[in-house]
Design goal:
This protein folds into two domains: 1-327, ANL, N-terminal domain (Rossmann fold, 3-Layer(aba) Sandwich); 330-428, 2-Layer Sandwich (GMP Synthetase, Chain A, domain 3), CATH 3.30.300.30. 31% of the residues lie in helices and 24% in strands. It has twelve helices and 21 strands. A nine-stranded mixed β-sheet has the order 4-3-5-6-7-8-9-14-13, with helices on both faces. A four-stranded antiparallel β-sheet has the order 10-11-12-15. The chain has a four-stranded mixed β-sheet with strand order 20-19-18-21. The termini are far apart.
Length: 432
């Protein structure tokens, strides 16, 4: 039932003791880096003075801008020859954010991913097909090493080439898949084109999905299409990548591994903690990373702690699914809008397909929003009156959610551009 029961069901009091011990060790390591060493001296921070969980609030936040400003080695706590791998973002708009790992960090990361996959139901008898990018992206190697550590047979399929993915599933009896949720809809379309039924013609039984925000309704659509349970995962490259938080068999929140990450949820405006159950910005402090510990890293992801205990018995607290990011929010006609608010509305309509895009543009000096939506094939009949009626219904329900009336364009299935990576949901063409 548990991968590491001595950690996963550790009583809360003992878990807090472990966190304090590891926090002090992480602060001592962080002080060896050029960035934190200088910052701690300026602010008079001593690791031994942090004696309780609440004391972490006395420590400064770390942001993505800090990582970029101190690129490439400003956060490294070991000599370069002590680091054995790095992962980083694309850096297409400036310096990338880079994370270094030593051998301890890679072993710890593999254990966390193995624990996470076991939590969702993966076992050493499974064939695990990893359909995501390898290389600098953390999802490929992160899941690869974690699934291998658990003992599963791993197919490093990488992203794309959908027909080959299906052949691999059939040839080797794939039972579990990791990929982004938007890709699964394209995968199902390929099954249909080939005249195959994923429930009848494969051995699939478990999906791990993550890397892009998705609603509960989207997850339920995936499960209905494939007849497979799909488990939500959460990670970010600054905290390793995958293996930060994962759903268990009850699918009622993501267990965040508190022996490895000290987790806070703060009000992004006041920077003060919010009560359990209230949404705010997720903040992490690494507790078991040697080469590059991070202190109070602001993720910009919005979520909440789910109150109460999980029936699975794990004592690590649960996070709700990510509802959006503070930096994904856009302002239209004076209203703050998150893309996930619009997706939540669209998924209520049986007529709506799997892809949509939100376009923002300036028309005659006014900012306008248009939502382009693919319809299910069965509903795209060419009945103009029915399409206009559906457009009005969708526009009205979106308006009720975001307080702005959008333009709605209903388009044929498959007509919106597709990406091999994360789905692009917002295109902002407004004049600055």
């Amino acid at each position: 039932m548990y991968w590491k029961p001595e950690i996963e069901i550790l009583p809360r009091a003992q878990l807090h003791t472990l966190q304090i011990q590891r926090l002090q060790e992480s602060l001592a390591r962080a002080a060896q880096s050029p960035y934190y060493g200088t910052l701690f001296r300026k602010q008079g921070i001593r690791p031994e003075s942090i004696r309780t969980i609440d004391d972490v609030r006395r420590l400064p936040f770390t942001t993505k801008d800090d990582l970029r400003s101190n690129f490439p080695y400003g956060f490294l706590t070991v000599p370069k020859q002590g680091a054995v791998r790095l992962h980083c973002s694309s850096g297409t708009t400036g310096n990338p954010t880079v994370i270094f790992h030593d051998n301890h960090d890679l072993a710890s990361w593999a254990d966390l991913v193995a624990r996470s996959l076991y939590c969702a139901g993966l076992r050493d008898t499974d064939v695990f097909q990893n359909i995501c990018g390898y290389g600098l992206f953390t999802g490929g190697l992160g899941f690869q090493y974690g699934a291998e550590r658990l003992g599963a047979l791993v197919i490093p399929a990488a992203a794309g080439n959908t027909r080959r993915q299906i052949k691999l599933m059939q040839d080797f009896g794939t039972t579990a898949i990791h990929t982004i949720p938007s890709y699964l809809f394209r995968l199902h379309s390929a099954f249909v084109e080939l005249g195959l039924d994923p429930q009848r013609d494969t051995s699939l039984r478990l999906f791990v999905i993550g890397a892009e925000p998705h609603t509960e309704a989207q997850r339920q659509r995936i499960e209905a299409l494939f007849g497979v349970r799909a488990f939500n995962s959460y990670g970010l490259s600054e905290m390793n990548g995958p293996g930060v938080a994962f759903e268990c068999e009850h699918q009622n929140g993501l267990h965040v591994w508190e022996d490895a990450f000290l987790t806070e949820i703060i009000d992004p405006d006041t920077l003060q903690p919010v009560p359990d159950g209230e949404e705010g910005e997720l903040v992490f402090t690494t507790l078991d990373r040697h080469a590059m510990p991070l202190i109070r890293y602001r993720t910009r992801d919005l979520t909440r702690f789910i109150p109460g205990e999980c029936p699975c018995g794990r004592t690590h607290r649960r996070l709700d699914r990510i509802s959006g990011r503070t930096d994904d929010m856009f302002i239209i006609k004076g209203c703050n809008v998150f893309p996930m608010q619009i997706e939540k509305v669209l998924m209520r309509f049986a007529e709506v397909g799997t892809d949509y895009v939100i376009e923002l543009e300036t028309i005659d000096g006014n900012d306008e929003i248009t939502v382009k939506i693919e319809l299910q094939k069965a509903w795209f009949t060419g009945d103009i009156e029915a399409l206009e009626k559906l457009s009005r219904r969708i526009a009205n329900e979106v308006r009720d959610e975001i307080l702005v009336t959008p333009g709605v364009r209903l388009v044929e299935p498959g007509s919106l551009p597709k990406s091999e990576g994360k789905a692009v949901r917002v295109i902002d063409c407004r004049k600055s």
